[in-house]
Amino acid sequence: MAGKDVARKSQPREPGPTIALATMGLIAAAVLGVWACVTLGEKLTASGQDVPGNPVVAVIDLAQGQIEWTTGATIVAVALVLIAGALLGGVAGALGRRQARKTRVDDVSQHLAGRADVKSLSAKSVTRANRSRGEATSVPGVYIGKEVSTGQDLWGGWEDLHLDLWGPRQGKTSSRIIPMIRRAPGICISTSCKRDVIEATMPFRQQVGRVWVLDPQDKALGLDTSRWYFDPLDFVRRDQWWDGNAEELAEIFNAATARGEAGSDPNAYFYSQAVDLLASLFLAAAMEGRPITDVYGWVSNLEDSTPVEILSGSQWGPQAADLASKYRAEPRTRSNVFSAAKNMISCLGRRQIVRWLTPQAGAERFDPVAFAGSTADTLYLVSDEENPIGRPVTSILTVAVFKALVDRADTCPGSRLPVPVTAALDEIANIVRWPRLPDYYSTFGSRGIICDTVLQSYAQGVEVWGEQGMKKLWSAASIVVIGPGHKDYRFLDELAHLIGTHTEQQRSVSHGGGDRGRSVSTQIVERQTLNAAELAALPFGRMIVLATGRRPILARMVRWDHQDLPPAPKNKETAA
Ligand SMILES: Nc1ncnc2c1ncn2[C@@H]1O[C@H](COP(=O)(O)OP(=O)(O)OP(=O)(O)O)[C@@H](O)[C@H]1O
Ligand SMILES: [Mg+2]
């Protein structure tokens, strides 16, 4: 037998007062109805009788035969019955449709965010807040969904960063990512594991700017045939601090190829040495303008000391000394460190990947700085979730583009980009491993770089950024959206505590023995508004929105094709 949602059932009320009120209402309606029939009937078919203006007196006169029920009264009665029937039918239909759309958690919204909190996320309020910061974009921001009890649309403004945690197949791409890209007012970055996002958005983005699709594993085959490549060593040369940039590039390779939770690797020592080794090798390759594939050749041949010779005598003295010491290390250590380095850059040995990193006939060179300076260009990064071979490439390009955007923002008035940049980071854990993303998250909003990081669970974030990193990301996101499909008790219990409690009136009935009859007592009890079990069973289409400074909101997701999306501008100039 299907269970009842006992926890959500409200306490039964005493039926007496309700029956008495309903009876009184019916009697009053009947008296008014009879009076209206006789009065209006007299106007239709005048019989010359004088109908009293007081409905009660009129009904008494009718009962005593002092006034008559005329044909006109019958016509009015039939018309009134038909009108009342149509009205009741309409109301019942609307209520029925509303009831059919309702899920078992919807009533909980009465204990969540109040009217003012919900209103503060309306398009009007968010637009007002944008304008007060000097933001002139016509789109209010990033659409979230509809609050369940009022149906009001909820928006995050152009300073809010989002974090979405939804289980698989719950609608995150179709209700959050696709609309975000379709409404992007300027530059847009999109990560995904499937072609669904590109299919639904690329024709629109092509009308507003240049589209670049990085697809090393041919997941979006045929959708974009333009040929291009980028040189990861441009990341090293992007400013005068080549040593730090080379180290960051090596860290990205390490993070993109790491297995298990961040920081949990038992071979961490060799890998940290390998990061230093790779940093020096990247620096050497960048100095000589060599392709990054040369670094793969160097770590494969321990006897080739070319990189040491390149760095010796250069301005990068400490790196040269460190590199030389690595080549001179005790053979076992040296072999372990070089093997770890080779593991990190193994993708550079794959033709499938190298074609994106080295000049090819007819392929255009992608410049992250030019992209960051564009009006409304789009970068799609697609990578296979099962096979992470392309992940270092997608990670490096993403980081290079974000850094270029930050650099550009820092040259703009107020360190804010003139038109907000939209980064729809769907399935990011499978595509981009950027250890420093949580640190950047708290500053992106003020620079006009608006991200939505989408993960399948909190644990997936911990795997990428470690416990501390994920906590940082969670705290820095001003809009956290939790969709259905979670089963991690610890996470759900913490979420239940964040959602909080409310008080309820509880009635208890006791039956005393002897001459003490039935006694009823009421008490106020505090209960968790949604407990972990209820959150684990959050129905499809519902989401909890935690927006900074507001009580939690229960919202309904809206698929992109049911949203009022703006049509694409006619030409590139109108996107500006
Ligand atoms: N509001 C909605 N009402 C009904 N169906 C919906 C709604 N939103 C999405 N769906 C359907 O749910 C399915 C999953 O949607 P979607 O691909 O967006 O989910 P996802 O969470 O991104 O999945 P994945 O984990 O595979 O990336 C699709 O078939 C989609 O059409
Ligand atoms: Mg998806």
TrEMBL record:
The keyword Transmembrane helix applies. The keyword Zinc-finger does not apply. Residues 420-539 form the TraD/TraG TraM recognition site domain. One of its GO terms (cellular component) is plasma membrane. InterPro entries: P-loop_NTPase (IPR027417), T4SS-coupling_protein (IPR051539), TraG-D_C (IPR032689). Signal peptide: none annotated. Keywords: Cell membrane, Membrane, Transmembrane, Transmembrane helix. It is a multi-pass membrane protein. This is Conjugal transfer protein.
